[in-house]
Amino acid sequence: MNAQTHPDASKPWYQQRWLLFVLSVPITSVILSSIMVYVAVIGRDTLVNDNYYKDGMEINQTINQDLLADELALHPKVTINSQGQASVHFSSSKLPQQAFVTLKIVHPTVGSQDVLVKLLPTADGFMGDVPSSLEGRRYIDLYAFDESWRIREEVVLPLKQHVMNNSDRARTLEQQMPKEQP
After folding, report:
1. Would you say the pTM of this structure is higher than 0.90?
2. Distances (CA, A) of 171 to 53, 96, 162
């Protein structure tokens, strides 16, 4: 019998091509898993809140804030220009005297881009400065100084004479709110 020898048969085991091919799959798997664990630990998500119970308890307070804004018939005219000036003008006669109003500009996904501004009273409304780099889709929350009422709306910045209307949302929330048992 004539025994034919394979050309790779004379090489040591660590120089075989098939060995490198077979080991490449588990080595790649270990490397990619390590990268995923690193990203999961270091890259924390700012949108996730760990205190779900507290958030659930605050829902009724938020609904009450929206309902009070609807009762006061607040329909403020909000302007945020590209130079960073924010102004709010109220036309409601039911609005109690405010020391200031709080304007919160919330980015939908990136918490580090949220802005909180206290607007001070002027002769014809409230004014304040916001960063001029704000552009694109945002949520604007307008709060009383004592946080008794709130108006929230989705907008695209910069704004020119945007009238916030809270009444439709407040009615929807009132219908969804559970009735208190006597």
Report:
1. no
2. 25, 22, 21
